[in-house]
Amino acid sequence: MRLNRFTDYAVRVLMTAAARAPQRVTVDEVSRLFGISRHHLTRVVHRLGQMGYLATVRGVGGGFTLGQPADRIRLGRVVRQCEGHASVIDCMDDPGRPCCLLPGCRLKRALDEGTEAFFETLDRYTLADLVVSTTAATLRRTLPDAPAPRRQQAARRRTTPAQKGSGSR
């Protein structure tokens, strides 16, 4: 199954927001990072906000953050919502005229079962699963002003000036 562009961009936006959490991300940053049209990303971010996946702030200093914890956002649900509920196959030769094979054909059922298996696999993954340390580190390196991971921040706070100069590890 091939995902539409909207879904692809939606997942990238969510991964970027998860990697930068709790800091805000802007549409311009994501546009530059992935080489995606700002106009198209604005629609994606708006829709993700409507679905409750993002919390958005408009205007100067605005941007977006995750609207819920990354470990509660299921990939399968996001993809279903972005893709819609269309079947892989239409079974209509012309609008309003079904395929002549429809009464005995099992193709649609087989494809629908395959699609459901695809979504069941995606349902096993959360956004947190996608943004493992290497992915998060890559996204943080490529975005300006990205905060260090919380563990590194905590380690920096525990290091005193005397420890910094001692050279011991």
From TrEMBL:
PROSITE patterns in the cross-refs: HTH_RRF2_1, HTH_RRF2_2
Q: Which UniProt keywords apply?
A: DNA-binding
Chain positions covered by the region annotation Disordered: 141-169
Q: Per its UniProt record, what Pfam families does this chain match? A: Rrf2
Q: Which InterPro entries match?
A: TR_Rrf2-type_CS (IPR030489), Tscrpt_reg_Rrf2 (IPR000944), WH-like_DNA-bd_sf (IPR036388), WH_DNA-bd_sf (IPR036390)
In alphabetical order, the GO MF annotations are: DNA binding; DNA-binding transcription factor activity
Which GO terms of the cellular component aspect does the record hold?
Answer: cytosol
The record's NCBIfam families line, in alphabetical order, gives: rrf2_super
Q: Which protein, by its recorded name, is this?
A: Rrf2 family transcriptional regulator
What's the source species for this entry? Limisphaera ngatamarikiensis
Lineage runs:
Bacteria, Pseudomonadati, Verrucomicrobiota, Verrucomicrobiia, Limisphaerales
